Amino acid sequence: MMKPFVFSALIFCCFLSGLVHGQIISGVVLEKESGLPLPFANVFVSNTTLGTVTKEDGSFTIKGDFPQEIEVVASFIGYFREVQKVLVRSSNSIELKFELSINEAMLTEIELKSKRDKQWARQFRKFEEVFLALPDDPYKSQIEILNPWVVDFEMVKPKGAPNYLIASSEEPLQIVNNALGYQIDYYLQDFRLTREEAGFIGQVYYKPIPTLDLSQMTRWQNAREENYFSSLRHFNLSLILNNTDSVHFGIYRAPYRGPDDRTPNHFYEIGRSIFPTQMDSILRRPLGDGTFRVFLPERLEILHLDRSWPNNYYNSVFHPISWIEAKEKFFDVDRKGILIDPRQLILSGYLSRQRVSRHLPLDYEPKSNFVAVNTGDQVDSQNVLTQIDQLREKPWLVTNKPYYYPGEKGWFGGQMLYQNEFLKDTLSRVIHVDLISEGTIHQSHQFPIKNGKIQGGFDLPAELPAKSYTLRAYTNWSKNFDQDGVFLIPIPVVEKGMVPTKKSMTQEQTLQLIEVKTDFSLVDSVPYRVMDLALDFVDEFENPIDVNFYLSILDSEQVVDFPSAQKLEDALTWLDSSLPEDFDFFAKFPIEYGISLQGIFIKDKKRQALEQNISIVRGDLEDYGTVKSDTTGSFWATGLYFQDTASIHISALDEKGRAFGTIELIPNTSLTISSSLPDLVYDVVPFTKNDLILDVAEDFVLLEEFVLEESKEIETMAERNYGYGTPTFEVRQDEMEKLTWQMILGKYFNSFKNLNMGESTSGVLAIIDGQSFPYQDGVELITLNYEPFDLESIKIYSDPFSRAIFGMAGYAGVIMIETRKGSRSGPQFDSKFDPTGFQTFQVRGFSSFLEFPKNPPDNRYLSKKPTIFWEPKGKTVQGSFKTRVKIPYGVESLRIKIDGISEDGEAFSKVQIIEIQKSLK
């Protein structure tokens, strides 16, 4: 089930209520500084087609049927626009006076902004998807901003809150909407985009596109009618008119009832999670001023019955689906169904798709005898291709060193690149990494993807031949896109005693807007030197900027300068590519949410169906899940989470829990090796500086074991959350004494979402004092046997990345409790699993690797290594990063290499040399 992107209802600034007919708004527009009239200034009623230009004396007159509360806008090029909120009510004539101030910044602006950099282009693409139309909307190709260069972007980084992107424009956006037949001047007032939500407001002036083509006029009229009858305005109008027999909407109450474990079958869910309701059952009251208050205590799920559109929520209905939720449990509308305050509603689903491309002016009135019919406004093959394009992903990796020797240990970090960043929650959480050469796979690993980040390592055998290899990375899902989603980076493996060299060390220099300022201090201790390193990241204006980065510090005497094979800024060009129009998509390889199994159920009796529930158990119930085989007996299971190799028990079970039939596992298909691997041409020359030293794995193992042993003495298992990482939410002990389970579930459990597209979801997993109960209903188990005040702690894992480590059993989320000593009155279960009747398979899990040891012991001499420090998860706080680096004696100079990307998408790569001996003098 794909996560719905919530689109804020803050779409247009409108202060509207009942219409009054035959009114006149007149007035004058003056220059504030001189008091002189401004001829040919634009004056219009926002969000309508009602407007005019001033005469030579600055006067204007607008006639029409106005809402009771309106915004009248006056604008002129080179001046700040002025907006006046007007309460019309029953007045037949309104007089206004506008005084516009000169915008000196605009008058002195001489820079032509029609050509922008790549970062601006990516931000503008996101802006268009939120502002104009979604990528799969058929209207997207029919609407265009004619002056895109007037839009400026800024990434805002508030303290204690998520970053958000804002867009601004000194001039109105000039938009042509050939889908509905309007020219639009949009005066953008505010635009904000976060990872979860988006919203914008502004003043809008619509002008119908003139045409004498009768067929074009008919198409526009039909499109306007279609959009009106599927709009929020028409839904609201149906509510206040009590249209109980509406053919346009199917309405269901969708109250929150805990974790989102609904099935994709709409008809099955009726009466379980959604409840049919009628228009006349929704309470509304007139407020006496021409407006109505609609009371909405629960979320509504709405089916748009007169339209065809694929959705990601149900596989049994083919209508668009929307959800409406009132923040204050009510919202106000005028007698035309126009929302008074857009901030009162949260829209998701189909209604949240209603960007500028589908909005009509508020003075638009449909034909009274119109009956909505589907005119083919569903997603066509080209838009299906656009949808598939949005689901593309590709990894990018960077290694700790540019080349290696046989017998060495290596590390890498990286991140996933997504065509649509908002969909990363539903995309792959497993990366496959191979070491290949000349058609041969020498090593194959799989590592978890955590929140789009990648971290791993590898050991090169001492007998590995010295030559050029390729590190290949891909996901199971990206195999559907052939080589487009595959990352390749050459890895030279050099003969011992030699170093690589390229004939020309020059690289293409790219303009980078991020600067890294380095500051450090050195102190000698007995076993090694200690360097306190500070990195400050600033933009071109010397402002601190937050970045995610990968930091490698090498002994520059041991590792010679060698150009990077692929920089992140080069990899980002993939985001600007798109699928070819003739691309034939077939999802043969599904998305992996963990270690995956593919198999076939073979029945042992003729009358048995091939469609069966397949039970999967890891070890002694360390993980548990069920999947369903299809009509051919084939099944797919994903989401298991373990390292190295584990025993997996699989069987179909009857109603009495007895195993039957036979299971055959199908090996995972390896990706075909491309015939065109990246070619890195280099020479090798003898290493002449000192004795060559290698990054040998055994020395790092000793250091890592010491650090782990030290940490065990400091933290208990409960304090370390039993190794499961940081929870999404934690209920504090002082809160538990005041809260009931109902209050806790209502406050925290609405965050549980099943974002595993097309996969089954079990109930919430319960972990009690470190013991998990994957075969129980976790919420029921805990709430029936414990009270909050009897517990030491309640920890909730609800986001897809924190709960991934729990495997299939944690699909729906996890609630972990720690009981108070002496009050463990809850149930005690024997969790031993009896595998009788199950078939057992040895399945390879995630590859284990030792993370780079950053804290060697203080009482142990630190021997020289080529890799002094490696940080694949660097992240700044207010533009700064500080760390302590332990440097072996004998190291004379360091090469610091930083690859990263700012939170607003600007990639960079920096290399700096630090001369230790000179710094000590």
Topology:
Elements: E1 6-8, E2 19-31, E3 42-45, E4 51-53, E5 59-67, E6 69-75, E7 82-87, E8 93-100, H1 104-107, H2 118-131, E9 143-145, E10 151-156, E11 164-169, E12 173-177, E13 182-193, E14 197-208, H3 214-229, H4 232-240, E15 249-253, H5 266-269, E16 275-276, E17 284-286, E18 291-295, E19 300-304, E20 321-326, E21 330-334, E22 345-349, H6 381-390, E23 393-399, E24 409-418, E25 430-437, E26 440-450, E27 453-459, E28 468-474, E29 487-492, E30 498-501, E31 515-524, E32 529-538, E33 547-555, H7 568-571, E34 595-602, E35 613-618, E36 623-628, E37 634-640, E38 645-653, E39 659-660, E40 662-665, E41 683-686, H8 697-712, E42 729-731, H9 733-736, H10 741-748, E43 765-768, E44 771-773, H11 778-785, E45 791-797, E46 814-819, E47 839-844, E48 867-875, E49 880-887, E50 893-902, E51 907-915, H12 916-920
Parallel strand pairs: 1-14, 2-8, 43-46
Antiparallel strand pairs: 1-22, 2-5, 3-4, 3-6, 6-7, 9-12, 10-11, 11-13, 12-13, 13-14, 15-16, 15-19, 17-18, 18-21, 19-20, 20-22, 23-24, 24-27, 25-26, 25-28, 26-27, 28-29, 30-41, 31-32, 32-49, 33-48, 33-50, 34-37, 34-40, 35-36, 35-38, 38-39, 38-47, 42-45, 43-44, 45-46, 50-51
Unreliable segments of 5+ consecutive residues: 1-20, 107-115, 370-381, 706-714
Number of strands: 51
Summing up helix and strand content along with how strands pair, one would put the structural category as mainly beta
Query: What form results from the Cα inertia axes?
Result: globular
Helix content: 10-25%
What composes the largest sheet? 12 strands, mixed
CATH superfamily of the largest domain: Macroglobulin (MG2) domain
Q: Rg, please? A: 32 Å
The proportion of residues in beta strands is 35-45%
- If helices are DSSP runs of H or I spanning 4 or more residues, what is the number of helices? 12
